Amino acid sequence: MTQGAANRPHRRALLAAGGALALSGCGRGQAEASGATLYDVPRPDPPPALKELAGFPLGTCVSTGLIDDPDWATLATRQCSQVTAEWEMKMESILKDDGTFDFTRADRIAAFAQREDLRLFGHTLVWYAQDPPALKRIDGDKRAFDNAVRNYILAVVGRYRGQAVAWDVVNEAVTEHGEGLRDCIYSRNLGQEDYMLLAFQYAREADPQAVLLINDYNLEVTPAKRATFMRLVERLLKRGAPIGGIGTQTHIDIHLPPGAGRTAIRELASFGLPIHVSELDVSLRGDRMDLRPREQKLAAQAGRYAEVMGAFLDLPPRQRFAFTTWGLRDKDSWLRRSPNAGDGTDAPLTFDDHGHAKPGFWALADALQTRR
Ligand code: G3I
Known about the structure:
Layout: H1 3-7, H2 11-22, H3 28-34, H4 50-53, E1 58-62, H5 64-67, H6 70-79, E2 82-85, H7 91-94, H8 104-115, E3 119-127, H9 133-136, H10 142-159, E4 164-171, H11 185-190, H12 194-206, E5 211-216, H13 223-238, E6 245-248, E7 251-253, H14 260-268, E8 275-283, H15 294-313, E9 320-325, H16 359-369
Parallel strand pairs: 1-2, 1-9, 2-3, 3-4, 4-5, 5-6, 6-8, 7-8, 8-9
Helix pairs in contact: 2-15, 2-16, 10-12, 14-15, 15-16
């Protein structure tokens, strides 16, 4: 495929975006004009399994609470081939205040993945937002801090070696608007970029086979942040960091300018490394007043899902690491629980609260089916 062709929005993905609307018997313009609902058309039930349409891992996030929900487990095991622990493989769940490790919840997630033959994606090892008491207590003692971080990474990555195929080694290292790199307990004790290099080295020491990724968010929303992130990746690679993939979280909303998601994926792929769309959700809210009817917001949401999947499908197969949504059913979304959850009616995912497929699901299915 020539470079020019590789850059053009994939015709079929654009059709898919329209396809989700076409399934509703109306195009975007018609939907906006007639206000027709996207739920009016008959659809195959049960919906197709996306993991069977995709030639790459289809993922979602999981928690022990969801594992115990049989409806969720049925939906997740039908649709997905990979899982990411939403929070229980992080320090906040594993690293106890006295510095010892509690793997109870993480092990339950690993056991579920093993039992259901799901790939396990490790998330996340070093994150500025995770500075638990056991690390705070040695803040400033650089040697002790380095030993503690190394011991943590060796223990966690070593425990799931051979099952966790990959890890988000460093998460969210770039500041909110891309001005620079975050100042955090890790940078203060181990060095602004050295902490990242060390984390990658320790993870590689613990598991010579795992794919090691660096992960961040708003890389499509904020081009300046994407540029800072890419310069960081370039420097780390030049310093020998064993970065084997790039995670772009893709927490977006329906007001993201069309094409921004595609541009981000295309630029991030310029390193030639595998890309993980790692935490995709498309909020119906956002930072502006939007008085459109809900059905039209859902159509706009379907268009964003189609665009991101289309851009991912335009990557060479070797760069399609995995495509993960941060949840399946709206009611399970972190956006229903986050401090800015508003009225709690956001519906960012591809299945509604009852597990019924939404236009966003059909947009993904159409994009995948047009490429088979
Ligand atoms: O459910 C437990 C409860 O049983 C327990 O008593 C309580 C004790 O603190 O914790 C509750 O779990 C909370 C969990 O979410 C489930 O709601 C944790 O406190 C809380 O920290 C956790 O927040 C997670 C957050 O990361 C921090 O780990 C969110 O679920 C999760 O969606 C969010 O995910 C992040 C990614 O890792 C990185 N990218 C951004 C994304 C969204 O913030």
